[in-house]
TrEMBL record:
Residues 307-318 have a biased composition (Low complexity). Belongs to the IST1 family. GO terms for biological process: protein transport. Gene3D superfamilies: Vacuolar protein sorting-associated protein Ist1. The lineage of its organism: Eukaryota, Viridiplantae, Chlorophyta, Mamiellophyceae, Mamiellales. This is IST1-like protein. It comes from Ostreococcus lucimarinus (strain CCE9901).
Length: 347
């Protein structure tokens, strides 16, 4: 029955109690001050935690600090709204007789009353006295007025404080706001923070510069690959020359130009790869004259069986490989050794 009478009072706009309104204002002020102190202490603790995370910003330290900083930003906004709400309640408490004396909303209290009604819906769970004030103002000025002050789109038109409207809304914090707050905490804790690229800043490379950079990287990769091939060829040439070149004091030392000429000739061969250079030939052909046999005027006599078979290629004896050599010499290595032997003999 009590609820029915309250509903009738709200509809008929009767039953406003100035004494209850004054008591609710005083209780709301006391509770709001305690709530602000509690939230302020919690915000300072989180801010200290964020500062410690920034000091140990290794790996995921920055990301964790940024997430915690979002809570700090929300608490900052809520505390700012509560501070304005506290001033609004003090204003209403001081000018409450003007509410009792007028049938319409006093112009000087228009913002204060609309702000309290709007805050009752968002902060009524933490400050229940705001619900009592909303009910009393509804009985004084009507349910339609209360509904307009509670609406998101109409509260501003009713005169509610814009800062309270923004601070009590449930929304995500802007990234730039979080970044500025994070930088302030870092400066307070003497932490040098590498500021990331600002949100919304253009970081993509233009298409022309991207194509030029790609072409430059491709050229650099090709040059590096060519240098690696030349190094492998030079190493193979030196190894082959040391194995196959005769040890004669009359031979001359090869110049760098001779080495470079042979390397260029080797690299110019089609489809020359490391696998091709090291692979064992399936059907090796005979080496050029003078390669793979002692340097002398004597001719190698062919076996009678080989001479009788004209289709069989000539076979030349190969020098015995030293014990330190790993694996048999390949046809390419013999070819290179022969060229170096010819160069070292000179004209």
């Amino acid at each position: 029955m009590h609820g029915v009478f309250d509903a009738l009072k709200d509809v008929l706009r009767v039953g406003y109690d100035a004494s209850k309104t004054k008591t609710a204002l005083r209780l709301a002020l006391g509770r709001l001050k305690l709530l602000r102190n509690k939230r302020e202490s919690a915000r300072r603790a989180i801010e200290t935690e964020v500062g410690e995370m920034l000091k140990q910003s290794r790996g995921f330290g920055y990301d964790a600090a940024r997430i915690r900083c979002e809570t700090v930003c929300r608490e900052d906004a809520t505390l700012k709204g509560y501070e304005i709400l506290e001033l609004t309640l003090e204003t209403l408490l001081a000018r409450l007789p003007a509410v009792s004396a007028s049938k319409a909303v006093p112009e000087e209290l228009r913002e204060a009353i609309a702000t309290v009604i709007y805050a009752a819906k968002r902060a009524g769970t933490e400050v229940p006295e705001l619900e009592t004030l909303k009910k009393q103002f509804g009985r004084k000025y009507g349910r339609e007025y209360v509904a307009a002050c509670e609406g998101e789109g109409t509260a501003s038109a009713c005169g509610a404080n814009a800062t309270v409207l923004e601070s009590l809304k449930v929304k995500t914090v802007d990234d730039n706001t979080v970044q500025r707050r994070l930088e302030a905490i870092a400066a307070k804790n003497d932490v040098v923070m590498e500021t990331p690229i600002a949100i919304g800043e253009e970081v993509a490379m233009p298409a022309s510069e991207s194509n030029a950079a790609y072409a430059s990287a491709a050229r650099a990769a090709a040059a590096a690959e060519a240098a690696a091939q030349r190094a492998e060829a030079a190493a193979a040439i030196v190894a082959s020359a040391s194995l196959h070149a005769p040890s004669d004091d009359a031979t001359k030392e090869l110049s760098d130009a001779d080495v470079e000429a042979v390397i260029d000739e080797v690299l110019a061969m089609p489809d020359l790869t490391v696998e091709d250079a090291t692979a064992k030939p399936s059907a090796p052909s005979g080496p050029p004259p003078g390669v793979g046999q002692p340097i002398s005027d004597k001719k190698v006599e062919l076996e009678s069986s080989d001479a009788s078979d004209p289709a069989k290629p000539k076979a030349y004896p190969k020098p015995s490989a030293p014990e330190e050599q790993r694996g048999p010499p390949t046809a390419d290595a013999d070819d290179l050794a022969g060229r170096f032997a010819a160069l070292k003999k000179g004209p």
